[in-house]
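Apologies for my clumsy wording, but could you write out the amino acids of a protein and the tokens describing how it folds?
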Amino acid sequence: MASGYAGWFSPAMLAILAFLGVIGLMTQLRVLNVAEEDMMYVVAMNRLRGGYVDLDPSVAQYFLSSTTDDQAGMDQTYSFLRPRRSVSHLFGSSTVLIVVVNACVDGLLTGALVVSGSGSVGWAVAAGVIVGLCWVLGWMRLGYVHFRGSWRAYRPRRATAAPPGFLGGPSR
């Protein structure tokens, strides 16, 4: 081979990509755990602030973060200077960054496996793109299900009051 990469290069490349895939999966799981821990701490601090307001209602005026421990209160605490967080929060998050990097690594590993198995470059690219997209969609779905499951299992003590005329009640 003119490039000098014959013999050892393909197995080494596959091993390195597989190693990066495992490390990426471990990192993704850690980010999922940290996100859940962060959410728990925000809700717990909201509950504590609510307790302070129960003891002395006059302190409520000093809190920028929420005093309710429901999802609406968590949302307020995460972004108390803006009424709504922008889409940049999602796309700039560690979760999305790691999901995209992992999708690329796993797609590259898949493509390398296809080529190593005597497949064409076209099939390798197609398989890599499919695996990468499945990784992104799968992790986004898993994150959503995990988040929703946490809120279904949790019972807040202080719910955010619904706006006047709102029939849906607090968000859950």
